[in-house]
Amino acid sequence: MPSLVHYPLDPASRLIRLMCAEYGVPLDLEEVKPWLREEALLELNPAASLPILFTDAEMPIVGVLASIHAVEDFYTPEAVGGLFPAAPLDRAEMWRLAEWVLVKFDDEVTRYLIEEKIAKRDQRGATPEPSVLRAAKANLNEHMLYFNWLLASRNWLAGEEMTLADFALAAHFSTLDYMGDIDWAKAGSETRDWYSRLKSRPAFRTLLNDRVVAMPPSKGYADLDF
Amino acid sequence: MPSLVHYPLDPASRLIRLMCAEYGVPLDLEEVKPWLREEALLELNPAASLPILFTDAEMPIVGVLASIHAVEDFYTPEAVGGLFPAAPLDRAEMWRLAEWVLVKFDDEVTRYLIEEKIAKRDQRGATPEPSVLRAAKANLNEHMLYFNWLLASRNWLAGEEMTLADFALAAHFSTLDYMGDIDWAKAGSETRDWYSRLKSRPAFRTLLNDRVVAMPPSKGYADLDF
Questions:
Q1: Which among A16, A23, A26, A72 has most CB atoms closer than 10 A?
Q2: Which residue in A57, A88, A99 is closest to B63 by CB distance?
Q3: In this structure, is residue A225 part of a structural domain?
Q4: Quick check: A88 and B73 CB within 8 A?
Q5: In angstroms, what CA-CA distances link A131 with A127, A138, B112, B131, B132?
């Protein structure tokens, strides 16, 4: 069985878990906290980033871009097709939004909130820095406006097909939602409907059962009707 | 003819220019300064990131991930094969290092130096912040050690084949080298030899003629024997 070195609330790890679940590929999970930069992790990946995927091959697949392509190469069920659209321009739109989420959204929102709210729990005496939390939340609001604008004119994030871009954003949303950082009462209804559709997929179940020690998820995290 | 909205010293734009040159695809170039966030750029790409590739299709290809895949899909010469290795595990190693360069190296080194040394020239009265320059250079030194360690045991960055990962790192190096931020006297000989091989490729010529107004390149930037 393939296995994944992951952290439960790491959005890149969640994306690969979602893809594997969608494709019916069971995964053994091994948990690691990347911010501790432990020797065992650095030996696998000197970048200390996640996820790291072990397929049946001898070599680990390191990082989210390598893992996305490996899952798509190795595990796409022929009958249903994968999460990459067949038409080149649809794929380009998917990559545009995948990059938006994996690089820009992560850089402006998610990684700050994970650093402040989760990684700092492992530093004695460290507490979240309010100015950083405020900046990340202000950025999140801007991104939410854009996603809502997009989803008002299309069924899925990158067009009329569900793609990798949807899974990437849903992975980030699920992490933020666990930490209580998405205010669904204020979110646009298009975004809320879109997330509700994704959250109802069987592939999502594995994420909704995740629990981090001494940090229960926000109310509504696992509710399909949130 | 395809065209590219780019900035001459933007490493992501340089990567796509290198790929197109390697594949024999001429490009019309349109220059833009992304940090000015001008309306014309935001209309094409609300993320205000580069590059943006116009193929013969009606829709622009936005961002570096979308452009990499589009160039590979549309323009790979069948006779020579592309910059993605054929074997899945070799591709995984290519993506690991492409992500290292496009995300980690950019995030820890290149984007700070571009912001401080180039973008700030367009802000009246702004000057480069010495502490940021120092941190970026310290990070650069760490990355150089890793690249040199890798290149001591393999011909190319991701293995025995030249791949996208080589072009990605060479694009970043060429930007840093233009600004005089690589100390070749101190760089490991493996890295220097590797860059010399890439710089000698015909595809590289287009980059070596770039000039930024009122900012001449460092001595040795365009020399093949540097």
A1: A16
A2: A99
A3: no
A4: yes
A5: 12, 11, 21, 21, 20
Q: Is residue B55, in this structure, part of any structural domain at all?
A: no
Chain B hits for A95, CB-CB cut-off 8 Å, are 63, 65-66, 69
The answer to ipTM > 0.90 is yes
Range of the domain at B107: 88-204
pLDDT digits 0-9 by tens, B72-122:
999 988 777 789 999 999 999 999 999 999 999 999 999 999 999 999 999
Q: What is the overall mean pLDDT for chain A? A: 95
| A108-126 confidence digits (pLDDT tens) | 999 999 999 999 999 999 9
Q: What are phi and psi of B62, to 5 degrees?
A: -110, 125
Q: Is residue B192 part of a domain?
A: yes
Three-state DSSP at A118 gives coil
Answer yes or no: is A226 within a domain: no
Q: Note the helical H segments in chain A.
A: 11-22, 39-44, 64-75, 88-99, 111-117, 130-151, 164-178, 189-199, 205-208
CA distance A97 to B100: 20
* Residue A113: predicted pLDDT: 97
The residue-averaged pLDDT of B23-30 equals: 96
Burial of B67 (0-12, 13-18, 19+ CB in 10 A): buried
As for how many domains chain A has, the answer is: 1
CATH of the domain at B172: 1.20.1050.10
Work out the pLDDT band at A106, boundaries 50, 70, 90.
Answer: very high
Q: Tokens for B211?
A: 């000039």
Helix pair angle (B64-75, B11-22), 10° resolution: 0
| Predicted confidence (pLDDT) at residue B162 exceeds the cutoff of 80 | yes
Question: CA of B187 to nearest chain A CA: how many angstroms apart?
Answer: 20
Residue A142 φ then ψ, to 5°: -65, -45
